[in-house]
Structures are given as C-alpha cells and as structure tokens.
C-alpha cells in the first residue's frame, strides 16, 4: 500500500525563536532558512512580520531566497497584521498567511473579554481578508487543545467556507494526552463539513513532554501536516522536535507515512541551530543528542560490537552521524576495550587484552571517561611491564 505523505512545517524561526536568549539576526535566519529548504521542509514559518521591523525584514528576505518550500508568516486575526504579512511575503514563490485567534473559553473570556460568536466572526473575517492576498491560508485555533470540540468544529467549518486551506489545531499549553489529542483530530475529521477541502495540522507544545507523541497521534487520526522545530526549541518546554517526528515516521513503516525530509541532514541541522541560537542540545536528546548513539555499559557495548541492531534502532548514518560511539568507562568490558584499541591501530591478542584490561580498570575507576590518550598511556605502561 502506498504510504501517505505528512507535510513538515518548520517553525524554528518563529515559535523556536521565541525562546528567551535565542534571538537571531536576519543573516542567521537566512542561513537556517536556506538549509531548511535543502532539508526538504514543506513549509517554513519565517516569522511574525508585524512583531518588529527586524522580523519583517527577515520574512521578506527569506521569501526572496527560498526556492522550494512554501514561506509562511504569522498574524493575529486583524487586518493590519495581515496587510504587513502579505507585504513581507510579497516575493515568496509560494506564500502562506497563517492567521488565527484563541478559541478556548479561557482565551475568549480572559484574553479577549468576548463571546464565542464574536470570535467566530473575527476568525472568518481574518481568513477572508488573508485570502484576498494569497491562495494558501492556514488558520490556527489557539489553545485548541482546551477548546470544546463542538465549538472547535463550528469554527473549522466556517473558516473552511471562508477559504482556509489548512486548519492548525494547536495544543498551545501542552496539556493534552496523546489519546485525547488524537480523538480531537478524529472528531474534526468526522464532524466538520467540507473537511476534505483542507488539511489538518498538529502544533503541539511540550509542557508535559508529550509534544511528539501528540503529533503522531494526530497524524494517525487524520492530520497530514506536523508543525515542529529543530531540537524541539520553542516557548517554555518547547515544540514538537522535527528530528523525532521525521525518524518516527521513517522507522515505523507500520504507520504507513512518509515525509520528504533528507534525514541524513538532521544532525548538521541540529548543530547549526544550536550554535546560532546559543542553545546547547541536552546530551540524552533523542536522535541528535551527543549520547544518542553512544554506548557505555559493557553488556550493551558487547552487543553493539557483535551486531549494531542489538541496542540501536536507527543506523546513525541515517541521521548524518558517522558511527555509534563506544565510550570507555569503568562499566566497559574487554570487548569494548579491544574494539577501541583496534580503532587506534592496535591489534591485540587475548593474553595482552587480559593484561591491558587490568590497567584500564585502574584508570577507569578514577576517570569519568577513558579517552584515546589514556589508551596510549595504558599501552605504554603495559609494554614496559611486558618487556
Ligand atoms: O502554540 C500556538 O498556539 C501557536 C499559534 C500562534 C500557532 O504558536
Ligand atoms: Zn506554538
């Protein structure tokens, strides 16, 4: 059966850049946008043009630069925002305006001091107005995760009639459980008239560590676009991590989905964004963390040396990492030590290995990690003793 495509919408330059301390200048944004385009991203959310002259400039320059991806600008549901976004996107080959409004009762009451009816009208007006500029209009129902499903379905139905091509269902506060978020998408698929004219998009935040799981649940239940960021950067605990979604869809053939992302670029993408934003990646981060393909306990190392698949579900080359690393610590065994000695040019016999291993343990017990220069030193000490 042919697999279905999941569009990847990258919002590193918009939601990702909202992280305190991660501000980028236009040049840096252009470097990232160019690389995202090569990576195979379907939609690049380049910024929020009305938010500052700098952001306007970035969206405008990115629009001129990007060759393949759709370029998208965020707006609130008002004419001024939409005018400015349309102007910033003027040179984009495939422009998209992303407009929307909060739909949960708490947003309606506390943010807008308004009513459901009034919010519905504003949503429809915004989509119609955006549509007067561009064909491709994405509507976001902010805080959809906590919005009543029947009301959300009404909003979706009306904005589709007004011309929305994509319906973004954000779990803005990262509150939903995967089952709940998946059911929300299913409910919309089954209850919104005209839903076949639009695609549903997942935009999940990671406050409970569920952003990726929720996005996948959304896709399984009918969404065909996932919004995400490199390294999962974003407000508070971040957004869905792009590299996780891409590799889940790639590794789980049972889901029958594919993306157009060149996964071999994921590691370099992660390093570039981390360096430019000055935001280190946690070592145990899935897919792109420094330890994602590192093995340090003896049992695991022995297994991986015999056959990589015993403890690795992804070939590191698939994400652009040269090789799995065998880290030497006091928990490592003889086979890992022999492997690392071989790696630096020493073919050792079984007897030599027994001898070297005892010296190795002495060093390992006082160090966090035994590195190559320690191995040379161990080899030297042992050769002296053997002689
Ligand atoms: O999290 C959210 O709801 C958003 C919208 C503005 C799309 O980022
Ligand atoms: Zn968001």
Overall description:
With 387 residues, this protein is an alpha/beta fold. The protein has two domains: 4-277, TIM Barrel (Alpha-Beta Barrel), CATH 3.20.20; 294-382, Recoverin, domain 1 (Orthogonal Bundle), CATH 1.10.238. It contains 14 helices and twelve strands. It has an eight-stranded parallel barrel with strand order 2-3-4-5-6-7-8-9, surrounded by nine helices. It has a two-stranded parallel sheet with strand order 1-10. α1 runs parallel beside α2 and α2 packs across α3 (79-88). The chain is elongated. The termini are far apart. The chain binds 3-methyl-2-oxobutanoic acid (KIV) and zinc ion. Zinc ion is lined by residues 15, 170, 172, 203, 205. Belongs to the alpha-IPM synthase/homocitrate synthase family. LeuA type 1 subfamily. Residues 6-267 form the Pyruvate carboxyltransferase domain. It comes from Chryseobacterium oleae. Its EC number is 2.3.3.13. Pathway: Amino-acid biosynthesis; L-leucine biosynthesis; L-leucine from 3-methyl-2-oxobutanoate: step 1/4.
Characteristic terms for this protein:
about 375 residues, alpha/beta, TIM Barrel, Recoverin, domain 1, eight-stranded parallel β-barrel, two-stranded parallel ribbon, 12 strands, elongated, binds 3-methyl-2-oxobutanoic acid, binds zinc ion, 2-IPM_HCS-like, leucine biosynthesis, manganese, EC 2.3.3.13
Q: Which stretches are poorly predicted, pLDDT < 50 over at least 5 residues?
A: none
Helical stretch count? 14
Q: Give the strand tally.
A: 12
Bound molecules: 3-methyl-2-oxobutanoic acid, zinc ion
Q: What's the end-to-end separation, in Å?
A: 66 Å
| CATH architectural name of the largest domain | Alpha-Beta Barrel
Structural class: alpha/beta
| Strand residue percentage | 5-15%
Element string (H = helix, E = strand): EEHEHEHEHHEHEHEHEHEHEHEHHH
Widest β-sheet, arrangement of strands: 2-3-4-5-6-7-8-9
CATH top level label of the largest domain:
Alpha Beta
- The overall number of domains is 2
- What does the radius of gyration come to? 25 Å
CATH topology of the largest domain: TIM Barrel
Tell me, rounded to a whole number, the average pLDDT. Answer: 96
Shape: elongated
Helix share bin:
40-55%
EC number: 2.3.3.13
GO molecular function: 2-isopropylmalate synthase activity
InterPro entries: 2-IPM_HCS-like, AIPM/Hcit_synth_CS, Aldolase_TIM, LeuA/HCS_post-cat, PYR_CT
Domain Pyruvate carboxyltransferase: 6-267
